[in-house]
Write the structure tokens for this entry.
Amino acid sequence: MARVMSHARAMTVDDIDAVLAIEEATFSSPWTRHMLTEELSAARRHYVVLEGAEGVDGYGGIMVAEDEGHVMTIAIKPDMRGRGYGSGLMVMLLRAAIEMGATRMLLEVRPSNRAARRMYQKFGFVPVGIRPRYYRDEDAIVMWVDDAETESFAERLGELEKAWP
């Protein structure tokens, strides 16, 4: 099967319907239209979509507070997963956070989401704690990177970016 390449661009309010469809197909507690609209208009946020031949294939967002980048959300259409698109989105989000002054990164992930945890570990995220009942039906593992300003982190992002389809 030929792979159709997606390209990345900034998310706009026109993307919200497509993003909501991916949210609903991915998460047991999907974000609402209001939440997405608020995030797009909030300061120190960066949201991107991957757009393919048939529309939005994935999206992600990051917030920066002080020197900390917080991955807010990231998801790929179910039929597009496992192709490296999530890693490509992460590279873009982390680079944007660094440009906004982040030197450390944070995210929460479900313990049951092993694929996401493996991807985050490739970026150097390590588990540092648990947020009890963070999700309606599950705790969250808090993962952290504290070396985002270093040359080794930049090299890691560069290597992961080269592997992006």
